[in-house]
Amino acid sequence: MTDEALVLEAARRSGMLEPGRSVVVLLSGGQDSVCLLDVAVRLCGPEAVHALHVNYRLRAGAAQDERHCAQLCRSAGVALHIERPWPRRRGNLQAWAREVRYRAAERLAAGSGASIAVAHTATDQAETVLYRLAASPGRRALLGMRAREGAVIRPLLAVSREQTAAYCRSRGLAWRDDETNRSDRYARARVRGRLLPALSAVHPAAGANLLRTVELLRDEAEVLDAMVDAELADGGGIAIERLAALPPALRRLVARRMAEDAAGRPAPDAARRVDEIVAVGKRRERASLHLGGGLRALLDRGQLRFSAGAALPRWRGWRADLTARGRASAGRLPPRAG
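Structure (tokenized):
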């Protein structure tokens, strides 16, 4: 099978791009997004595809990138939407650019039920896992990007960057190169230019082995998620004694799930401090343990729940807030249970 046929078949098998299904393609003009646009047109039909290009006006070649995307969309018969945000010069530029891009895509897709297609490849997956592993501890760092996250889809996640380039060459599609992808200024570029080649020098199958590990861990994560679901099936909280009896790994996962459901955001401190929470729950009848960002673990007569409210709980005239050092920062604590 040629690389062109392989890429097209991988996208078809993903089930994310189907005839007539509306999709917004994030189009930078690079080889991966050019490949994705062409694949989406072939599988969904040009009338179902909208392209979004964000011209951040931060690079010397930004205007040429925009013109290139416009020409591609004219040739493909696809509607192109262009965003030109006011350039930001300070702070985390990559995080800002990502937020601008996804917000624009969400506005474009709103009301139509369109998916938002991103051209992440297996190569991007490997880089993401390595970067997250270096930057943050925990199992989630090894799970990589999901093929589908809400409205966001990644139909090319099973093919490599080399294969998207071969696809474009086979289809006669030109693309634009972003020189910042090779700059050591950004951590992702250092992973791409140094770390992945170093791993491949250790073993030629390093990249493939990494991706296979991600697949296996995702399968195992489904099992762990089911176990957490079973522990929280009753809803509303969990008994401290039950939480204490769980294996340490499952205890951390249960606490993290409860905290994140309450906060609506990642809450790594809940897992990191679960043993402290359990110890306080065994000693005190009622207490509130501050986890930062307005999130608290609430302990009430042997039951644990989490709250993201700004106010501290009030029970029978007293209020308590345990800091990271386990001391009361307000009010007085009730007597030790037992």
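The chain has twelve helices and ten strands. Residues 315-338 have pLDDT under 50 and may be disordered.
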